[in-house]
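=== RUN LOG ===
request id: a7f3
mode: sequence -> structure
chains: 1
length: 184
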Amino acid sequence: MLCLFFSLSSPFLFLALWENGKCLTSIQKENKRLHSENFLLHLRQTLEKNNHSLKEINKVYFTSTPSGQTGLRVSLAFISTLQVLNPKVKLYHIDTLLLQAGNASCVSLLTIDSRGNKYHVAVFQNKKRLLETQIISKEELAKIFDKFPDFSLQKDCQDIDFLTNFEELKSHFTRLNKIEEINY
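=== RESULT ===
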């Protein structure tokens, strides 16, 4: 069984190819504003390097929302195209903020604007959401830290190990029957 894991929801590009429970290849690199240019290139190289094709992929695990606009558009376009090429592929998605949090007790943030004044935020403890995802300003962030003073900060997927978090959270992914089920 061939599985693809990928995330384009942050300034990082992450993709991993798994076969029969074993990671064949994993890429995690900073990719700010280049998802549309680099994702398919790296995917094609990864598949070729491992002698596989898109049609062989049985399952896809990916981050959905919240996300940057380009990352979400590229992800949805790829998933929609893959479903046409391979209608039997099974799709699973996870909230980006949860993937970023992993097992940590943390405030999980994704920066929305280039000035760093607005964020998508949620709070997690042991994979459980304590504060629902919302958009806040920089000024409102202090109030959240007052409510959760012992929680760490995970911001813009800096210093996270995507592969480890994908593995640890695999059971938290939600199965999609069709791409329209994602609320964006």
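=== NOTES ===
The two ends are 30 Å apart (CA to CA).
The first helix runs from residue 35 to 49.
=== END ===
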